[in-house]
Amino acid sequence: MSKPLILVSNDDGITSNGIKKLVSLMAQIGDVLVVAPDSPQSGMGHAITVGDTLRLTENRLFGDQIPAYECSGTPADCVKLAKHHLLKDRKPDLVVSGINHGSNTSISVLYSGTMSAAIEAAIEGTPAIGFSLCDYDTDAEMDHVDEFILKIAREALTKGIPKGIALNVNIPAHQNQKIRGIKVCRQANARWEEEFDQRIDPHGRKYFWMIGNFVNHDKGEDNDEWAIANNYISLVPCQFDLTGHHAIRLLNDEWDI
Amino acid sequence: MSKPLILVSNDDGITSNGIKKLVSLMAQIGDVLVVAPDSPQSGMGHAITVGDTLRLTENRLFGDQIPAYECSGTPADCVKLAKHHLLKDRKPDLVVSGINHGSNTSISVLYSGTMSAAIEAAIEGTPAIGFSLCDYDTDAEMDHVDEFILKIAREALTKGIPKGIALNVNIPAHQNQKIRGIKVCRQANARWEEEFDQRIDPHGRKYFWMIGNFVNHDKGEDNDEWAIANNYISLVPCQFDLTGHHAIRLLNDEWDI
Q: Hey, of B243, B245, B256, which one would you mutate to test binding to chain A, going by the most A CBs within 10 A of its CB?
């Protein structure tokens, strides 16, 4: 029987340790194609390249058996180029993105380039998962992730993912205690509160660095922040229909337009 | 009684005709502050600037009475800088973004810089609306929008917008027939199917232009694409909790993790 085709992308760039790990895991269960940004794209959200050109260059970063391409664009561009230029005849059975170096829980999903690659694939009906490790160290220990990522990817390949959904999987940083399991969660009600560090450049002009402080307002135990804090892997089904259906009635009732 | 404070941003850049129109309308009902990108940011999705510095420069583009700043970052950056640097003491009563030169109906909401400014504000609890004109001509006629934008902004100021929601408002291009009204809608089930136009640069190397073809699969009459096609203004309540709550149970039932 032929192996499934798995497309791997990320947002930290094709040379990061996270994608190297993810490619090595996916190669155990499928034929792998890698298309990933040629430079870090963190915080790019669901950006696409509309007013500029794109480059795509083949490389041997993952050995002779695994075709790999670096792309000048965003994670969403990578998925589009893979599906509509490189893979015209054979469609991927699964798209995975990551492993991101840093958490994409809660509201961070909106800013996440990792998840934009997964959501882009889901829009076109391909099962897709973004994996993030809650450790910002680019050399973080990540061998504790293997069994869980393989389990989730195998379930996606055999049972599929509900239509209109991409999975946002976050994994606790390595610690002495073993991970307690995988929790299907909702997105926590938390957000970033920004401060701006104002500085003066050598030419006497002001500039800013954005500093984000993550603030969790959520008291529930069914959300991704709780899961990570309690040493569970969080798995949030994310939809790309942003309609707040409950609000349609509210607006029709209360507004006079 | 003091006037409400209205923050205006966009994604086409601070010199576009769309933001000029939106500022002139908002100045009729509130005190206006403009913070908008110094260059076009179309397709930027919910990108933020995390690995680079930001610039913010005051200008007089909208006259002496309306403070205005151009920002080197994305639409989401503009809202963050406005709220957490420029406006530390007084919070805006309303954030509006646009008027975008081009449609942001259906799945385009995900790629939309216009809507990312509105959603960024909504995350922090401020009523927020993105306005888009379904006409890509940067010199498009837009006097037909005035009464509707004013009506929607006034309703938002007096009645508020449901918590967790930003409004995505799309307005049909100018035509001979008068607009039939405003419809509260859901996001249409449509998507972009991409093609890549491959070319060779003067140095003999390949590059690509992305070409998007919009394909509407939605047969309903309660969605934004239907509204625009039938000369209504569409108003979609968009949420930033991406959790597909229905899928939590499906995954818990069907998956073995």
A: B243
* Distance set, CA A141 to CA A22, A134, A171 (Å): 13, 11, 12
Cα A183 to chain centroid, rounded: 17
User: What is the value of ipTM here, to two decimals?
Assistant: 0.92
For A8-59, what is each residue's pLDDT tens digit? 999 999 999 999 999 999 999 999 999 999 988 777 777 888 878 999 999 9
Model confidence band, residue A1 (pLDDT cutoffs 50, 70, 90): low
Residue ranges and CATH numbers for the domains of chain B are: 5-188+220-254 (3.40.1210.10)
For A86, the token pair is 């490189």
Residue B211 sits at the chain A interface (C-beta within 8 Å): no
For residues A173 and A211, the answer to whether their CB atoms sit within 8 Å is: no
Interface of A with B in 103-122 (CB under 8 A): 107, 109-111, 116, 119
CA distance A2 to chain B (A): 23
What does the alpha-carbon distance between residue A50 and residue B41 come to, in Å, rounded to a whole number? 10
Cα A2 to Cα A25, A28, A93, distances in angstroms = 18, 13, 12
Q: How far apart are CA A101 and CA A104, in angstroms?
A: 9
